[in-house]
Prior knowledge:
The structure holds 3 protein chains of 3 kinds. Chain A has helices at residues 22-41, 47-73, 81-110, 126-151, 155-185, 194-225, 235-263; one strand at 4-5. Chain A contains 7 helices and 1 strand; from the N terminus they run βααααααα. In chain A, 37% of the residues are buried. Chain B is α+β, with helices and mostly antiparallel strands. Chain B has 3 domains: 2-63 and 77-108, no CATH class; 115-224, Cupredoxins -  blue copper proteins (Immunoglobulin-like); 233-322, Orthogonal Bundle (Cytochrome Bc1 Complex, Chain D, domain 2). Helix content of chain B is 43%, strand content 20%. In chain B, the strands form 4 sheets. Chain B has a 5-stranded mixed beta sheet with strand order 3-2-1-5-8. In chain B, a hairpin with a 5-residue loop joins β11 (270-272) and β12 (278-280). Helix content of chain C is 67%, strand content 0%. Chains A and C meet through β1, α1, α2, α3 and α6 of A and α1, α4, α6, α7 and α8 of C. β1 (4-5) of chain A pairs antiparallel with β1 of chain C. The structure holds heme-A (2 copies), dinuclear copper ion and copper (II) ion. Residues 244, 247, 293-294 of chain C line the site of copper (II) ion. Copper (II) ion binds at residues 244, 247, 293-294 of chain C.
Amino acid sequence: MENVAHGGAQAVHHHEVELSIWPLIVGIGAFLVPISFMVHFSWEAPSTFALLGAGVAVVLLLVGLFGWVNEVHAKKEEVGLSKVAIVVFIISEVALFGGLFGGYFYTMLLSPSWPPVSTPEGVPPIELALLLTFFLVTSSAWMHMAETKLEHGDMGGFKTWLSVTFLFGLAFLVGMAYEWNHLIGDGFNISVNTYGTFFYTITGFHGSHVIVGLALQAFLMILALGGKISKKKQTLTKVTGLYWHFVDIVWLLVLSMIYVIPYFKVGQ
Amino acid sequence: MQRIVLGVISALFVLLTPLTAFAQEKLHDPAAGWYSHFNLWLIISIVIYLVVTIPLIYFPFKYRRKKTNQDGAYIQGNTALEILWIVIPIIITLLLGVQSWALFTEYRTVPKDAFEAKSVAFMYGFEMTSPEGITTMNELRVPVGPVKMNLTSKDVIHDFAIPHFRVREDMLPGRTTYLWFNAKKPGEYPVFCSFYCGTGHSGMLAKVIVMEKNDYDEWVKKQKGASEAAAASPELMGKELLDKSGCTGCHSITGEVKMGPSLKGILGKKTILADDSTVTVDEAFIKEKITNPEAKRIKGFPPVMPPTQLKPGESEAISAYLKTLK
Amino acid sequence: MAEQPTGLRSWIFTTDHKKIGVMYLVTALVFFVVGLLLAAVMRTENLDMARKTIIIGPYLYNVFFTIHGAAMVLFWMIPVLLGFFANYMIPLMIGAHDVAFPRLNALSYWFYVGSGLIAVCGLILPGRLDIGWTGYAPYSLVGGANTAFYVFAVHLLGASSISGAVNFITTIITLRAPGMTWGRLNLTVWGLLGAFIIQLVGVPVLAAAVTLLLFDKYLGTSFYNAFKGGNPLLYEHLFWFYGHPAVYVVALPVFGIVSDIIATFARKKIFGYTSMVIAIMLITVVGFETWVHHLFVAGTLNWSRVVFMWATIFIGVPTGIKIFNWLATLHKGSIELTAPMLYALGFISLFTIGGVTGVANGLVGFDISVHDTHWIVAHFHYVLAISMSMLIMGGIYYWFPKFTGKMYNEKLAKFAFWLTLIGAMVAFFPQFIIGYDGIPRRYWKLPVEYTPHMRIAAIFSYIAIIGFFLTLYNFLHSAMKGKPASSNPWNSKSLEWQIPSPPPFYNFEKIPVITEGPYEYGKPEGEAPKGH
Ligand code: HEA
Ligand code: HEA
Ligand code: CUA
Ligand SMILES: [Cu+2]
């Protein structure tokens, strides 16, 4: 051996698992989701089949993910690689929203007026959007509080602030559901024109990220109640925190592009 | 180091000065400009290829390994050399780029006196309209001289390509794009659809017929009379319908097999269906074939024919025309 | 350390990067064979240009090139590089026990398999995909194809790519052994890192593009529907925003592998390591700035075409740096022409032909005449299909002793190399001529005058395909019956060769401490190299 010296530091990273059943389970679950869609849309099979497939898929995904995280958390010590990974992952999420906003911008610039004239009065509902902004932005602050409490080892405070974060996030989601329901009732639906198309797609994409963030928080709560989170095991909390702040920042973009710009009715 | 960089920069100036002059020269024919662009590119590329391949073949022989585990010379790199093969490709790139830019400007600047025609694409054919308002299918007649085409599409994206004039531009639904070419010599030039648009894509062909100015004017006069005649005669109406509905994209009337069987002389013939039964092609069969092609598929062809809605009398007109094809 | 598990379970439940890598290789080769067979049928259909069906009619021809393109690019090229080579080599080259998230790694593989199964549905089930590997709207919306197959295959594959990218970027950042500085990484690792960055940023945009396709088709939205205010060009923009960099996802790791092979068989330090790394990173970044060159005649704004021309053709400069540095590495080397080395040299030659024609396409005035013609088909088969596939075969030969512990048959390897090289080189050349004449691609039948051209093309592609099957035979036969290989048959200095072949389960008993880069051949001071 010419270029390596032997007997250096102990392994930085243990080869932690040899076999794990969970990736395959999650993989099959994820595979069944599109299959059930296709059964329904493309082959026009009775929807019972699609529902059955989707049900199995959801069960497999839930069981698989739970088993997976449990297996990871059974380890004695954590290395904290996920903190790097979540930053890397967020870069790809930025690209996802970048693509959507890019498409939105492109369509907006090529339209004679924005929003197109066929958009009903009172769209976008800016007051409600500001209320939603309040919920999400403050919940980001509460998440930060929870993280600080955990750093100080204050588990009680951690749980409290985490619950507050969760409730504010939930309030956002409920508000959004109310808004969608209301708008669709007013005749502003996803296929009314390009603005409607982008409105629901982008707020929907963002909403799905809120749901993922809330699921992560709920999961943290379960782990915290089981005593599996401590000052020494902060990684998952940090990951959730970073993700939640990111979801918050994206919302500010959604607010300015999807609500504020059309509010001023350019070119109408 | 410094000397190399300075030398290269002055070489750049020497090279680029004539180029700017070149860029201002007007070619008035994109096709001719394209050929000289191609030639410059070809010479440069052959040189690059030789510069790469000759050492690639020579070195392995010259520096063949003589003993096992003999090492090569220990060389880290050489800044001057590396700068050289950054700067020379940059110069080549600038050269080609400037020439291409000038050519492109030529391509996109339509001469003021251009003859202006229009084409609307559909699956699978081109509807051409002359400035006098004469509409033809898959055939465009233009007088000698520069021609501007305004392009659009009725359904999916298509493309209008005339290889002989070295032009092409996509035809987008809901938008108008353009191209121009200099039709110098009378003759027939094929037109291709160069944007994938489905099963009939490879059959979506047309032609540009360039005529002397007088011939063209005469043709325009004849057409004005002809369209009145067409309204009166079902045969002529049927021919027009075949073109207009896109049938000729897939069916020839000459006996040639395109996407679908040729329509020449089919009336009254027996034909074999996909389920191996035999039917006689009559007017009812043709009508059903057009409005509901799913019902009876001909054996040996792909099931791609789309249904077409017809107004009363149109199917009869088509049949009447098909009867004339013997 | 635990016992090594065996049997089928040890494969399907594995989280070991080496086993996952081998599973990627085998799966990708299956798709390659599928793609080759489809190509062979298309070429047979091209033997006669009279408009008569030979084997498949126009409809199936369109299905075949769709699945051929998708199988080759998405299910062979990218997975074999970012699945097999990355998985197997990155931990060995940076001195790690495994990747950062072994379970996620396994999941990436299963996503890939699921995606492949859906793509196969698009080949055989009703509503077959005939929308081209690009899936351009609006045809993919109004035609009879089950665009859902396409969308979901891309989704699952995207999930696989993104999780893979997150995993490997984290691995390269955090798990390098002590002393493994950025300046001591193998160029293969650098190339793969560039590719993963592209995947990370590009794939989400592609995923968004096809999701909107799904919405348009099944929810009645109007992203791409021109008659409802949408814009079909938006799809092309979003697709090529990923689609163009995707070609560098293939090219960058290949550039890295070429560097490793050349350094080993010329026993010489890579000429200009730093500029090689800078070139890789430049291509990674600038690759995202060139996509409009696929829309040069698509009705885009005139000035934007010129801007993107400049970005496109300047890509030739960093690529040129790499080519000339390789040549300079050969200069005064001590060269042994083994099969992997032959493949590397053959690659450089084929790639240069493809590359200079790429520059031609990038010239906006030039491209007007050749866009979407057989010229383009020839360009990307030279640069992507044959040169890259050749080098992947070379890479497999190069590390064959490492991952199987067996030697391959050198004579057969060289014979197959010449067969494939000559076959592939001639198989696509006539298409340059056809494309120069402006004849469009994706045509079931060309004008009849081109029958002789396509006959030559067909016959030589059969020769290349035979060459490939000889190679495949060589792999399979040698993996089972080959002579045992020593741990470092090439006597390379790179880290992965310093451990036994095949590597033990934990790769390194102890994490090594690195004191030197991977290419320090013939260093004047310091230890003289020892033989094995
Ligand atoms: C691995 C795959 C790969 C690679 C590496 C490349 C490399 C390049 N490609 Fe290619 N390309 C494809 C795969 C690839 N391409 C595919 C698949 C398509 C078609 C997609 C479809 O429509 O289906 C395509 C299509 C395509 C187009 C669209 C054409 C059209 O549809 O009209 C263009 C246009 O600019 C282009 C340009 C280039 C350029 C400039 C490079 C450059 O990176 C090349 C750089 C290399 C060199 C230049 C050679 C080496 C350099 C030197 C020796 C130095 C000296 C050289 C100079 C100074 C010039 N490519
Ligand atoms: C990795 C990518 C890849 C590869 C390997 C190939 C390989 C081949 N391809 Fe193609 N092809 C594409 C990517 C690729 N292709 C793409 C993206 C399209 C566009 C699809 C679309 O339009 O949507 C396309 C389209 C396409 C068409 C349709 C053209 C049209 O009408 O528009 C045709 C037609 O004949 C064709 C032919 C072939 C042939 C004959 C081969 C081969 O069989 C040629 C022989 C080559 C080899 C055998 C492999 C190369 C060498 C090795 C692997 C070395 C191994 C050998 C040894 C080790 C000895 N390809
Ligand atoms: Cu119309 Cu291709
Ligand atoms: Cu490109």
